[in-house]
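Teaching note: in complex prediction, the entire set of molecules is handled at once rather than each chain in isolation. The prompt given to students was simply: 'Predict the structure of this complex.' The entities are:
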Amino acid sequence: MQLQTSGEVGGSKLSSVNNLYNNYAGMLLGYLFEVVKSRSVAEQYLMLVFNDVPNEIEEFYKPGVNAFCRLQLMARKKMASFFENTEDHNTHNAVQNNVFIVKNKFIKEMTPDQQLVFCGAHWHGKSISKLAAEIGKPEEAVRKLLKECFTIIRVAK
Amino acid sequence: MRVEDYIESGILETFVMGAASDDETQELMFMKARFPEVNEALQQLELDMELLARNMAITPPPNTWGKIEQEINDIIVRDKTSPEKFTEKERDNDDDFKQSKPYNNEHQYIEVEAESSHMKISKSWKWVFAAVFVLGKIFLACAIYFYLENRQAQQQLQELKTELRRLKK
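The expected output is the structure of the full assembly:
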């Protein structure tokens, strides 16, 4: 969703951040919770992200910028050390135990390989090369799988 | 590579998921700016991500925004009240200083040195210190010399007294 603004960036920084918070805090918290699997830790990350928003508030109002994706990107940067420290994140087990499926109707529609790639990249912060090594396929194949995942999401909506 | 092939390659999906490398991101930014189809496909993917996130949203606790608001207000107040350092250069060029730094809200501070345990003195004092040092050594040598002389004299006096007592007997 593209944020609308007239003249100055949302009047004041605080009201602009509040606008973003009202629109996306729930979605971001949901994402953060799936990554860290702890409500309190997820809430701390949520606050860290929104505390940082005033520093780059102008970016959110540039034409063509998706505010949620930008917030998610900021959250990913904040969680970089979390992703690094949980190298042993076992996406195989998470997929086998249907950790993500029970909550998400889109994931249900995906094949095990698609789930492995999508969940690994999205919630475990894994790179394409790492995912390729995990499933024993070339990187191009991993990207194709990711593309298929998005097609499924689009069709299932 | 054709634009259609680029879109089909899955690189856009990789970028949206935050898994693209720096080179891939740079290339994508270039393609996005050059080809509207790429931009459109990217925006569609971002909407898909939003859709996915909306499906798994969790309502934050009611007090979370209050904490964020407090923190942002603190940052804003800190930014507004932090004074700039006053420099001599600005004072020398008085006109420019008055024009560029109106003293209404933009306070400045003058950096002062903290109290130091060291003192600064003129270099000429080093000869005085050298003379005091040398004189001190001379007085010390004299004191030792006269002490030893005195002790020797006392011993001789004691020996003479003993000799006299023996002669009297």
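Point out the following to students. DSSP finds ten helices and no strands in chain A. The domain at 88-156 of chain A is CATH 1.10.10.10 (Arc Repressor Mutant, subunit A).
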